[in-house]
C-alpha cells in the first residue's frame, strides 16, 4: 500500500486540521472533536449538521459554509461518528430556530445521529432529522435498511442549506429536505476496490474485464458484476434507472451531479456527463443545474456515480442559490 500519509491512526485528525487551515476565516474545529463548523453561521437561522465516516472527501466538511451545512462530523474512515461527536456539533451551532440533522441511510449513522438528537432534546434543544436514501441500484432491496444514502446527499445539502439561509423555520427547512430526498436518485459503478489504510489492501477483486454496478461508497458489493462496456452503455443504464425511479417526464427540470469516487480522471467524468445530457435532451428533460467532479468519494476507488434531482420551482430556485463552501460552488 502506498499512501501519502503519516501514521494511519492520525489520518482523520490531520485531515480536519488541514481543512480548517484552508479557510481559517470561515471554518473552525470543535476542541477535542473532529467537528468542523462555520464561523460565519447566523444563529437566527436553522443549523444544518451532517457527517459520517471519513473517506468520502470533500464530504462532509467541504460543504460547511454559507448556503449549505453549518457543521460536519467526521468519524474514523468508513465508521460512523459517535453520538457525543454529533452532540458536540449540535452544541457548537446552537440556533434560536433549531437544528436539522441530515443523515445518510446507514445503520450506524442513523443510530448514532438519532441518539445524539435524543440527548439534545433532553437538554431542551429543538432538534429534528431527515434520512437520505437515494441509491437507486437498491430499489428492490428487501432488507430492512433499504436504499443507501450516497452522492445525492450533496444535492440535499445544497437545497436545504439554501432554505435555511433565507431564515425559514425548522419545519419549513425539514419539509424542503424531505421533498429533495423524495426527488433525488443516484446510481454508481466501480472499476475496482478502494484501499482502506487501516487494512492495507483492496476489499474485493474484479477481473480486468469486469465492473461492479451499484457499488456502495464504503466498498459494499454492488447489485451485479458486469463485463466492461463503453461508458455510454453504462451511463445509459444508470441514467434510465434513475429517470424511471423518479418518474421524470418530458418537460421536467433536473439538477445533475456526475460524481467521481476518488480515482477517476475528470476527463472520464466529463465524457459521462456528456451522455447524461444527451439522454435528457432526447427525452425533453431540462438540465438547469450541473456539477461534475469529486463530491462523495470512496477514498481511491475508480468509478463514478450519477445523481438526478427532479426540480419544482422551489427546488430550482434553491439549487441555484449562491453558497460559499470549499467543495461546492453555485
Describe this structure in words.
The protein is α/β, with parallel strands linked by helices. The protein has helices at 11-21, 83-92, 107-122, 152-165, 170-182, 231-246, 266-282, 313-320; strands spanning 27-29, 35-38, 47-54, 71-77, 99-104, 127-132, 184-190, 210-213, 224-227, 253-260, 286-293, 303-311. The strands form 2 sheets. It has a 6-stranded mixed β-sheet with strand order 1-2-4-3-5-6, with helices on both faces. It has a 6-stranded mixed β-sheet with strand order 9-8-7-12-10-11. The longest helix has 17 residues, at 266-282. The radius of gyration is 19 Å and the shape is globular.
Amino- and carboxy-terminal Cα gap: 37 Å
Please bin the fraction of helical residues.
25-40%
The biggest sheet, with number of strands, parallel, antiparallel or mixed sense and barrel status, is: 6 strands, mixed
Physical arrangement of strands within the biggest beta sheet: 1-2-4-3-5-6
Computed over alpha carbons, the radius of gyration is 19 Å
- The stretches of 5 or more residues where confidence is low (pLDDT under 50) are none
Per DSSP, the total helix count is 8
Q: Any idea what the shape is?
A: globular
Order of helices and strands: HEEEEHEHEHHEEEHEHEEH
How would you state the average pLDDT, rounded? 96
Q: What fraction strand?
A: 15-25%
- Class by SSE composition: alpha/beta
Structure summary, number of beta strands: 12
